[in-house]
Amino acid sequence: MSSKKIGLKEAISIGIGGMVGGGIFAVLGLAVALGKGGTPVSFLLAGAIALITSYSYVKLSLTFPNRGGTVKFINQGFGKGVFSGGINNLLWVSYIIMLSLYASAFGSYAPNLFQITSNVALDYHIYLSAIIIFATTINYYSIKIVGQIESYAVIIKLIILISFVFIGAYGLFGNPHLDQLSISNWENPLNLLAAGMVIFVAYEGFELIANAAPDIENPKVNIPKAYYYSVIFVILLYVIIAIITVGSLPFSEISTAQDYVLAAAAKPMLGKIGFTIITIAALISTFSAINASLYGGSRVSYEIAEDDELPHELTSKLWNQPIGLFITAVMTLVIANSLNLESISTAGSVGFLIIFAMVNYVGYKLSKEIKGNKFIPIIGFILCLIAAIVLIVQQYTSNKTGVLIAMGILTFCFIIEYVYKKTGAKTNSHSSN
């Protein structure tokens, strides 16, 4: 069965679509709350770590092209054991946390367009639950529709965000809040790094290119370009959006509208229409991100089970779709409805920083095999670990819940794997004897 090959344009749009999903809409307000005038620097720091990590992804995708993407790289580097299984479980759970982040962003933006009840908090929960159920239904009935929605959504959200950038840059001239960007308004370097790491989730999507690697045409040329072009483009886009947001709204307003700050930032330039257009863009973006991540998340659980790192029951189908889709959706509903945005974002960022640290380590360990440089992956490994530690320490004082949840998830992923390897794997080996 030959599948249609993916060209460079599509490969880049998978990367950009994965990053500019709900991330920027969900976490921009959070970033400004933590980084203040230095927010653009925070986005730059997070982007630099993503770019260094993409080097390991390029080399690993070229040597081991596989639809399992990150799961396969971890197994290739560490063998199939409790450690690799735990890290892969963490990847699945991190997908679920990303889904919760996008759903909570959808729930924050939607009531600005249409209120269902007179209670905004209740509307938030109704909207975020409805969108998860709706996207699960689409994923259940047609993977083809998921792909079509993605390709249109990428174009729509980019057109709107790039227009925001041009109009916003023009609107900055003579704006009284421009001095908020001056160094005197920056947080200390450690807080700037922590702000960059809380919002690291806004960059994790480039790893979706790995899952498409087997289908990319002319891989030697196109795979490196797809990773590097998409990451660099998104870094520039985020930094400019951060500059415009901080330069056009007073900090007090940014913190009031923290959960839908991008829409609020369009208001001074374009009034109510701008606010509405960005709100619609946020809803399209977060919906398309939920769609793609549900597909990615259910695939991850399938791949892990196929590699015998989770029970084989997870490769079974429930009514004709992998059972992972339903588990992913239910867990997303629980997390999104019970945690606040900052806790979700922290847990997701810690998860992805640890996963990327391990992928970088694999890039270092297998550098001969993948014909890669040893130096870049080991720098990526160290930076991801430092970033994760800084994030945990900084958040522990201001957001203990988020840190405890992140640590709990991490421990849970390894305990589950350990128990499965001790019990499940034994039964499997008995039955095969």
Overview of this protein structure:
The chain is mainly alpha-helical and 433 residues long. It has one domain (8-423): Amino acid/polyamine transporter I (Up-down Bundle). The chain has helices at residues 8-19, 23-35, 39-63, 70-78, 82-109, 120-141, 143-172, 189-198, 208-212, 219-248, 251-256, 261-306, 323-338, 341-365, 375-398, 400-432; strands at 317-318, 321-322. The chain has a two-stranded antiparallel ribbon. It is globular and about 60 Å long. The protein starts with 7 loop residues before the first helix and ends with a helix. The relative contact order is 0.20.
Which spans of ≥5 residues are poorly predicted at pLDDT below 50?
429-433
CATH architecture classification: Up-down Bundle
Number of extended strands:
2
In CATH, the topology is named: Amino acid/polyamine transporter I
Strand order of the largest sheet: 1-2
| Cα-atom radius of gyration | 21 Å
SS class? mainly alpha
Beta percentage is under 5%
The level-1 CATH class: Mainly Alpha
Number of H/I helices:
16
Instruction: Give the count of structural domains.
Output: 1
Shape estimate: globular
The protein's oligomeric status is: single chain
Distance from first to last alpha carbon: 34 Å
Average pLDDT score: 87
CATH superfamily: Amino acid/polyamine transporter I
What is the helix content?
Answer: over 70%
- Mind describing the biggest β-sheet? 2 strands, antiparallel
Order of helices and strands: HHHHHHHHHHHHEEHHHH
